[in-house]
Amino acid sequence: MKPAAPVITVTLNPALDKTVTIEQFEYGGLNRIKEMRTDAGGKGINVAKVLKLFEVDVNALGLKAGYQGQVIRDQLEKLGIDSTMIEAPGETRVNLKIVDESTKQTTELNEPGFMVDTDLLEQFQAVFKSKAAEASIIVLGGSLSPGIPPNYYRSLIEIARAQGIRTILDADGEALALGIEAAPFAIKPNVHELEALLGETFDSMEQMIAAVRKLIDRGIEYVLVSMGAEGSLLVSKTEAVKASPFPIMPVSTVGAGDSMVAALVYSFLNGKSVEETARWTSAAGTITASKPGTQVCTLHEVMHSLQLVTLTHY
Ligand SMILES: Nc1ncnc2c1ncn2[C@@H]1O[C@H](COP(=O)(O)OP(=O)(O)O)[C@@H](O)[C@H]1O
Ligand SMILES: O=P(O)(O)OC[C@H]1O[C@](O)(COP(=O)(O)O)[C@@H](O)[C@@H]1O
User: Fold this and answer.
1) In this predicted model, what pLDDT tens digit does every residue of 223-232 receive, in sequence order?
2) Out of 17, 39, 170, 258, which one is annotated catalytic?
3) Closest CA to 265 of 284, 286, 242
């Protein structure tokens, strides 16, 4: 039997996530670190980590640089994740995540990342083109490092589209605004990214759904909006379902959005309904938010919490 086509994740700006836990964070004061951990991070990489745990064949494509890049590669190898990461000059960023135990809030300090030149971008595009041809779904996620033009995701989406491959885009700012011009199959903005994209603020779910429909009218098939502790909203051409998560003790929300994207991929691959997909994506994000550092949900954990998600149809 022919093996299933792999999912390709693209991470052009990977990161080593350094998560520090502080009892009570004092802005402008001396903060003693109680616990610390480092995890391979960056949006596509986190999606690949979840998909591997979901027993989906995945290849993490991207760029990396220097010592930290090698640490990320080694971590992926240990997790059994195939990766194709082209070496860039310089050093991979370290993104600092501060978890305040007293408020249960995570504050993120993300570095800009290494500088990328045109030659490297052309080299990456050629690799992407050859890998895309054999992919089931392609996930493009995260910020673009300095030197990468903001329309780069758009060109990658166009390449995938020309080969009939579905794409999911998880980016913000200009990279998202220009990326959606190529009408990816799905996007996963959080509510702040969506508001910034559309230049609107939403006072009700109905208002948000009406705004999301404008994106669907532009050819995007699915829009998944994450709303932190409030849950998420999944909109297709014909349906809109809000998922409210079950109560958890949030530990580190880093990677929660990426876990939703991975569950979205899993739902598409398994032909799940919009309602089921809303459950899967919400359960995945919620479980990851209850784990330390950039640790992610497992298939077993998600399957056992699907029924705890509350759905509301609009
Ligand atoms: N404080 C929280 N309590 C419960 N679930 C949470 C919390 N924060 C995040 N989540 C879960 O993680 C998902 C993604 O979180 P969100 O912060 O919106 O994503 P992103 O990190 O992409 O901005 C949410 O839809 C929810 O299921
Ligand atoms: O590329 P950006 O936008 O700086 O984001 C990278 C960061 O986002 C993460 O991928 C986590 O994203 P989510 O919390 O949205 O799932 C981290 O691993 C990484 O440090």
Assistant:
1) 999 999 999 9
2) 258
3) 284
The string of pLDDT tens digits covering residues 38-64 is 999 999 999 999 999 999 999 999 999
Q: Check if 44 has its Cβ closer than 6 Å to any atom of ligand 1.
A: no
Ligand closest to CA 50:
2
SS3 137: strand
Residues 6+ apart with CB under 8 A from 254: 17, 19, 41, 97, 106, 108, 293, 294
Segments making up each domain of the chain, as ranges = 7-313
Residue 3 has pLDDT above 90, yes or no: no
Clarify whether 74 is annotated catalytic.
no
Task: Pick from 18, 110, 192 the residue to mutate for probing ligand 2's pocket: most ligand atoms within 8 Å of its CB.
Answer: 110
User: In the prediction, which pLDDT does 273 show?
Assistant: 98
The domain at 7-313 falls in which architecture? 3-Layer(aba) Sandwich (3.40)
Q: What is the mean pLDDT of residues 83-97?
A: 97
